[in-house]
Backbone:
């Protein structure tokens, strides 16, 4: 299972080659499967879901669909509590293939995302280096969505984007690629890029930074903007101790962007961050590492949740908020989210009830609550068992009343995949 848990790193090669008990206010939780994928309507959702203003959910599936190159889907709630799925777009591999990251919405209701393959030929494969796409929202009554490819990566400008995108206030898009750029042995260590919105619906691609191994390599996650317009993110490999880095990109007027490695991770404080970061109002950064820490159950430990705090005189201090141990979660591949009172929520790809999923657990949903005397207390809100999903790889979102929503990459009752094509789930307090 450890090899299975390193799936994201393996997915780069795959893309290149082809393809409770609850504490505090949660007296009890209920897990509910909102949808089971069944290959023809999508399979293996690796990214999370987002809400629109009407309460509909949107997401992507890595595979499945008409051409088996992945889909964009919508889930619409009904009055009786059920949800109806609709495939908004089937990727045909030429216009993009294998979307791994999630989606974002603009003010007009259009969707934006990335595909890890497709587009131009290159990056060592006929599958292409990946794309940035937009799904333009037509009249809902007509059910029309039109896909527009905004950018096709070619290698030097990046390749294999595995994460979603963010907007700045001017409407520019920012993201990362796991490969490509100007440094490291072919096919490159990855990039941070900007797509600048131009007149007439055109977009200009700018490479803001190419990683060089010393400052990190292979950005699996997207970037986060702070209030001052700085970008923050993680690299999954390399750095001083070969455990990945946490970086900042600062805009220098007239001179582009300057990159700083804020932290080179080392095993005891976490290793191999596959997820992005979130920023609180004080400017602290929060994230996860898939391995490392001091948890004793797993090979090379089970991963961590960490905080990075800026110092008054410059520099940053890392604090490990929690070390996973296996039964309480293992291999957190996704980031964390805050609720309104400062609790953190996330998923682990494996761990939990270890009798499931070949003895390594099918993954968990967890909560971290700050303790009065310092530190953080972890609670497992849900253990996946395969039938209700397995291997949650994406993060969570909360609705207005505190329900949690996410996806599992496998599991569920879809019969066209083994072991299941994945699910969309809700955890209700």
Residues:
């Amino acid at each position: 299972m450890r090899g299975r848990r390193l799936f994201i790193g393996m997915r780069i090669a795959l893309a290149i080659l082809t393809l409770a008990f609850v504490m505090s206010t949660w007296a009890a939780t209920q897990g509910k499967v909102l949808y089971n994928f069944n290959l023809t309507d999508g399979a293996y959702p690796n990214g999370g879901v987002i809400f629109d203003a009407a309460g509909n959910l949107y997401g992507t599936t890595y595979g499945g669909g008409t051409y088996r190159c992945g889909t964009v889907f919508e889930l619409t709630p009904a009055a009786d509590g059920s949800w109806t799925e609709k495939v908004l777009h089937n990727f045909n591999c030429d216009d993009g293939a294998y979307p791994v990251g999630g989606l974002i919405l603009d003010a007009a209701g259009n969707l934006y995302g990335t595909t890890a393959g497709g587009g131009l030929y290159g990056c060592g494969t006929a599958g292409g280096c990946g794309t940035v796409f937009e799904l333009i929202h037509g009249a809902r009554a007509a059910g029309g969505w039109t896909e527009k490819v905004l950018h096709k990566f070619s290698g030097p400008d990046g390749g294999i984007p595995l994460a979603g995108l963010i907007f700045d206030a001017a409407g520019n898009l920012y993201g990362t690629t796991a490969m490509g750029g100007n440094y490291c042995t072919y096919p490159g260590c990855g990039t941070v890029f900007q797509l600048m919105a131009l007149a007439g619906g055109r977009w200009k691609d700018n490479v803001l930074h190419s990683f060089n191994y010393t400052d990190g390599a292979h950005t699996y996650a997207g970037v986060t903007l702070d209030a001052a317009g700085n970008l923050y993110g993680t690299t999954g490999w390399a750095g001083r101790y070969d455990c990945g880095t946490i970086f900042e990109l600062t805009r220098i007027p007239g001179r582009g962007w300057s990159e700083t490695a804020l932290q080179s991770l080392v095993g005891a404080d976490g290793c191999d961050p596959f997820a992005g970061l979130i920023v609180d109002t004080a400017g602290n950064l929060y994230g996860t590492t898939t391995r490392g820490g001091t948890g004793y159950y797993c090979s090379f430990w089970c991963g961590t949740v960490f905080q990075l705090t800026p110092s008054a005189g410059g520099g940053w201090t890392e604090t490990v908020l929690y070390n996973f141990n296996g039964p309480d979660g293992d291999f957190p591949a996704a980031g964390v989210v805050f609720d309104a009172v400062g609790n953190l929520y996330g998923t682990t790809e494996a761990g939990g009830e270890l009798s499931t999923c070949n003895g390594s657990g099918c993954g968990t949903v967890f909560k971290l609550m700050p303790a009065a005397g310092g530190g953080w207390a972890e609670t497992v809100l849900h253990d996946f068992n395969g039938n209700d999903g397995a291997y949650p790889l994406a993060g969570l979102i909360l609705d207005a009343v505190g329900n949690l929503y996410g996806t599992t990459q496998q599991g569920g009752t879809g019969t066209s995949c083994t072991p299941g094509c994945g699910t969309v789930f809700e955890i209700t307090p």
